[in-house]
């Protein structure tokens, strides 16, 4: 029997064992569709195993110590009395060999990221997770370098002349940097950004000035990057409280009929256009958007956005089922820029959204996709410092939703056609707060 056959046989045996044990629970589905499960043990002294697609890739256990990441008090009389800084239990990360002597004594970079993703999901209320890498992990030095160089973790804070923390085994995993995509782009392909957006995040589009002149806008602004391919997946994230994968895809008009089509008003059109047309002709969408009309009107509407360098039309879906539409915009060349107090910045982003399918409405789903849009906008360009919205002032539901994802109402202003609230979301606030885990939520179906 070959080594590959032996390996496959062993993997199948592990998968059968996991399936039969009944002591595992699903935590995540990664953006590459790999399933992440953790073992459930009644003995707290036993480590928790983390498995990806049935194969144990690592373990973690709680050590009898708690640590706080004290920063501003270091070097002051308050350094050892900063009780306001929360302490969290120290975890030890172990290789699969800790559970099975025949298993690897190493952890790969993509698998370590998945373990960290699991920890930030289960321990989502912790702004830091103190860890040590077991000295039995053969590539522990490589993993430590990855954690520190990617920004996923840091060492204890010290004064500049004190380098003692460099030799200490403790690392502090940072929730704020994890959700900013630390350790994903350029390291592996398991991150939330996919395709075009992942590429743009790995190589930010260089700055050079461009200009927009329209009946509504006269503005100098950075040249914007080219658009994705039609139908390209841009972002994927599993929402644990719903057990579904949220996906954003660049709008696909498919004018050449190269992909499967559906019938709409006597024509064969892309599923995206058919859904977009149907949604805009529904009463609940038309009340907010006012774009009811024939198929040709909606085709032309999307074509105009695709030709606009400052706007990206996106279709949203749950587990591949189309559910809504969004427009990702650059604020500086958008007509709302004239109303931004202090002026729009070069990489400010904005959004317009609709949920077309009634069964996908509701506060919990709305918080999931709304926060995910902001997540995608911040991830795809580190120069984006804020996302700005302009819902109708009378739309209390959208303003409440905005506040639920950490936005605030900055001001109130009048367009020629509506009175709006201007909502703001600074990057620092969005990633500092516990907005994205969705492991538990008072509004979720799992908690009712």
From TrEMBL:
Transmembrane segments: none
InterPro entries, A to Z: Acyl_CoA_acyltransferase, Acyltransferase_MbtK/IucB-like
Source domain of life: Eukaryota
GO molecular function: N-acyltransferase activity
Acyltransferase MbtK/IucB-like conserved domain segment(s): 265-312
Gene Ontology biological process terms, A to Z: siderophore biosynthetic process
Family the entry assigns: Belongs to the lysine N-acyltransferase MbtK family.
Name of the protein in question: Acyltransferase MbtK/IucB-like conserved domain-containing protein
Organism per entry: Trametes coccinea (strain BRFM310)
UniProt lineage: Eukaryota, Fungi, Dikarya, Basidiomycota, Agaricomycotina
């Amino acid at each position: 029997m070959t080594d590959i056959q032996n390996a496959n046989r062993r993997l199948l045996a592990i998968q059968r064992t996991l399936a039969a044990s009944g002591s595992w629970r699903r935590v995540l589905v990664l953006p590459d569709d790999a399933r992440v499960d953790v073992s459930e043990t009644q003995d707290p002294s036993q480590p928790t195993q983390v498995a990806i697609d049935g194969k144990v890739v690592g373990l973690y256990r709680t050590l009898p110590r708690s640590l706080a990441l004290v920063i501003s008090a270091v070097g002051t009389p308050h350094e050892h009395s900063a009780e306001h800084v929360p302490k969290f239990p120290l975890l030890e990360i172990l290789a699969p060999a800790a559970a099975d002597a025949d298993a690897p004594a190493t952890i790969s970079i993509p698998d370590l990221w998945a373990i960290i993703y699991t920890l930030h999901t289960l321990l989502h209320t912790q702004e830091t997770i103190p860890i040590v890498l077991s000295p039995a992990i053969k590539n522990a030095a490589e993993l430590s370098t990855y954690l520190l160089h990617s920004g996923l973790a840091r060492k204890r804070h010290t004064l500049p002349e004190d380098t003692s923390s460099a030799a200490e085994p403790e690392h502090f995993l940072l929730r704020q940097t994890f959700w900013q995509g630390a350790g994903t782009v350029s390291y592996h392909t398991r991150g939330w950004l996919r395709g075009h957006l992942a590429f743009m995040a790995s190589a930010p589009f260089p700055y050079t000035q461009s200009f927009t002149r329209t009946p509504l806008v006269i503005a100098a602004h950075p040249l914007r990057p080219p658009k994705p391919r039609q139908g390209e997946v841009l972002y994927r994230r599993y929402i644990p409280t719903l057990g579904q994968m949220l996906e954003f895809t660049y709008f696909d008009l498919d004018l050449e009929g190269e992909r499967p089509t559906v019938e709409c008003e006597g024509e064969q059109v892309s599923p995206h256009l058919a859904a977009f047309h149907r949604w805009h002709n529904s009463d609940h969408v038309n009340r907010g958007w006012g774009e009811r009309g024939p198929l040709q009107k909606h085709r032309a509407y999307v074509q105009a956005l695709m030709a606009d360098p400052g706007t990206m039309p996106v279709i949203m879906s749950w587990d591949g089922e189309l559910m809504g539409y969004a427009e990702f915009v650059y604020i500086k060349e958008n007509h709302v820029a004239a109303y931004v107090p202090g002026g729009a910045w070069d990489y400010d982003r904005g959004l317009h959204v609709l949920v077309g399918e009634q069964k996908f409405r509701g506060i919990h789903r709305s918080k999931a996709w709304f926060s995910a849009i902001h997540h995608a906008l911040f991830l795809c360009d580190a120069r984006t410092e804020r996302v700005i919205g302009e819902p109708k002032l009378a739309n209390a539901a959208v303003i409440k939703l905005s506040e639920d994802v950490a936005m605030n109402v900055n001001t109130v202003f009048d367009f020629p056609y509506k009175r709006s609230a201007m909502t703001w979301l600074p990057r620092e606030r969005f990633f500092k707060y516990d907005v994205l885990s969705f492991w538990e939520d008072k509004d979720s179906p799992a908690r009712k």
